[in-house]
TrEMBL record, chains A, B:
This is Transcriptional regulator. InterPro entries: ArsR-like_HTH, HTH_ArsR_DNA-bd_dom, WH-like_DNA-bd_sf, WH_DNA-bd_sf. GO terms for molecular function: DNA-binding transcription factor activity. It comes from Puia dinghuensis. PROSITE patterns: HTH_ARSR_2. SUPFAM superfamilies: Winged helix' DNA-binding domain.
Amino acid sequence: MKARRDVFQAIADPTRRAIIGLLAGQTLTLNTVAGNFNISQPAISKHLRILTECGLVTVVKQGRERHCTASLQALQEVIQWAEQYRAFWNSRLDTLEDLLNEAE
Amino acid sequence: MKARRDVFQAIADPTRRAIIGLLAGQTLTLNTVAGNFNISQPAISKHLRILTECGLVTVVKQGRERHCTASLQALQEVIQWAEQYRAFWNSRLDTLEDLLNEAE
DNA sequence: TCTTTAGTAAACCATTTGGTTATATTTTAT
DNA sequence: ATAAAATATAACCAAATGGTTTACTAAAGA
């Protein structure tokens, strides 16, 4: 009954978005991921935990290493959410104009 | 030189996403927005400030009222970011399979 | 077997977040 | 002129966040 991590919250952090960018297309060891940032390895561990908790990253244990792979289909939720508003922002300039007229 | 609010962080909060949903297609008073939630008016004020700081909402002062309109084209940034990874998640099942084979 | 190496876990810390209540401030209505 | 309404501002608070360091555990090499 665990409230599974929210993907919106997961991608809110720039470091986590960078990790996603790094893992897109390639599987990397946790340590290798950490090597790309100026923060400590435990900090990266935490970020990766959050990313796995919402399904954005899959970690496979292999010997003493953790192989991290991006599972980015979880991003579909984000796209779907944002996409539903496309109709609105297409008419945005008009709306703003109306608004300013209304306000005089 | 203000670091303009991050839209990713803005949409991380569920209440703010709900406000966006509420304002999509209709301009509402701050108070009317607040009426749709169980939290105090100052709390809504803060959320709206964050939403305006990243351009997702425009507030027009009209007398003593604030008319809030969604400017959702700012969501394009989110879609664009996520969309760039579509190619990766399409091949996801294979990748995961490879991964498991590799791991035996 | 002994020592690296890879990663986790725990304890801690400062800052941010999301909320509160209470008190202004500014329009509008009476 | 006064009262009510719409919002802002301030002071405050608990919990979450993003980071640290310091062990600890487990696998791999020498």
